[in-house]
Amino acid sequence: MIDILRILALVAMFAVLVVLGVGIFSLLRGGKFRENWSNKLMQLRVLLQAIAIGLLVLLAWFMKNGH
User: Fold this and answer.
1) Chunked in runs of 10, what are the mean pLDDT values of the chain (67 residues)?
2) Distance separating alpha carbons of residues 52 and 36, to the nearest angstrom
3) Dist CA 52 CA 46 (whole Å)
4) What distance in Å separates the CA atoms of residue 36 and residue 21, rounded to the nearest whole number?
5) CB neighbourhood size of 45 (10 A)
6) Kind and range of the H or E run holding 5
7) Helix axes 2-29, 31-64, angle to 10 degrees
8) Which among 50, 39, 63, 58 is positioned nearest to 13, based on CA atoms?
9) pTM of the full predicted structure?
């Protein structure tokens, strides 16, 4: 179970990194792309961060309890 949580946490953190990169790109590019995607990307990043934090908390709990 711990191995699955580690993999899921890494995938979630990588997804946050990708969305953050695309968000920064949209800010630099500006124009229509920024207008259409900036807010959506920010919301997605916040959601992915919440998922990543939840997975890390679960991982810490499982590791503490020796599962």
Assistant:
1) 92 97 89 87 96 96 85
2) 25
3) 10
4) 16
5) 18
6) helix 2-29
7) 160
8) 50
9) 0.84
